[in-house]
Amino acid sequence: MPKIKIDLPQEAYLNNPFLRLVNRQHQLRSELVFDRFKIGRQSFDKGILDNLMHLISDAERHMFKITLVCGYKSIAQQKQRYDRQIRLLKKQGLTSIEAASELLQTMPEPGASEHHTGLAVDLIDKSFLDEMGGLSTASDQLSSQQWLIANCSKYGFILRFPKDKEAQTGVAYKSWHFRFVGIENARYMQALNLSLEELITLLKKEKRDKLTIPTQYNS
């Protein structure tokens, strides 16, 4: 049976801020400027507010109690956390190089974290978090996490670091880390099983550089 061709979404352009790629190969050198909103102690890009609230409220309608563990982190905050962990590892007898190598297996260096964008959210079952005392990939055994993973694209989110995309993302599987890319982009990526890195590569290949809004002057 021939494969069905799915056209790229109208908003799938490299200059779409919701598709900003931040990783170890594409690090931020300065803080991003965007409007933020706050839920409890966590803040996020205001542009994802409605979608995030709909995702969480619909999860609650399915009797899942989801908690927001982490949202926006500044580069400065990440540097403080990163330096603190390096010091702890060095106290255990590791050299600076060994400490950095070990830490980078679980924590991106300052400037390389998705959380700098304000578009990334860590979502997990509250009871599970309380019981485990922290984030764990074992959460994917829960009906609540399975629901989030299966349905997040309806709200414009993707599971940013899936099991089968570690070679592309360069990051170990995280069942709790979701990233907003827009509804049409998220559905497209889910349908074709694409990581954000793979979508960006495709957009470059298709020369989808700049989104322009059709008007009477350029239509």
From TrEMBL:
List GO BP terms, alphabetically.
Answer: proteolysis
Segments forming domain D-alanyl-D-alanine carboxypeptidase-like core:
43-182
Identify one Pfam family in the record: VanY
Q: Per UniProt, which keywords does this protein have?
A: Carboxypeptidase, Hydrolase, Protease
Q: Which InterPro entries match?
A: DD-CPase-like (IPR052179), VanY-like_core_dom (IPR003709), VanY/YodJ_core_dom (IPR058193), Zn_M74/Hedgehog-like (IPR009045)
* GO MF, one example: carboxypeptidase activity
What is the designated name of this protein? D-alanyl-D-alanine carboxypeptidase
Organism name: Oenococcus kitaharae DSM 17330
Lineage summary: Bacteria, Bacillati, Bacillota, Bacilli, Lactobacillales
